[in-house]
């Protein structure tokens, strides 16, 4: 049976959590384990399915069993003044890699972006995740050398104004 992609809902939280745990375990095999607090996932329901949701989720299934997911949100790229679909997270279980699940997720995401008139799909990939980078290159994605991702934690004190 082929891979199917569908929107995830609150009833899919146990499957999404299991896949998220597998993703973190996989990342730990690439570099020093980060020991992500497993209780962090409890925030996900509100972020994705709550009244003030900031993202959405897709679930990839093979023979009715969850094998992958993607979390995404919409944004705007002002240099091209177009909508953009941003992938916040994407994972396919190692047991089914090579079956087309990753490609099915990416194709579905790209079609959603095309349908909404978005100009691009944007995501980050950890520079140590060589297999993911190779996959993205195989499907025709390229990395931007002229941009750097910046992170500014909101719980840090504000910088002092320069006088």
UniProtKB/TrEMBL annotation:
It comes from the Bacteria. It holds the Pfam family Acetyltransf_1. Keywords: Acyltransferase, Transferase. Residues 3-163 form the N-acetyltransferase domain. The keyword Transferase applies. The keyword Transferase applies. One of its GO terms (molecular function) is N-acetyltransferase activity. InterPro entries: Acyl_CoA_acyltransferase, Diverse_Substrate_AcTransf, GNAT_dom. This is N-acetyltransferase. It comes from Pelagibacterium lentulum.
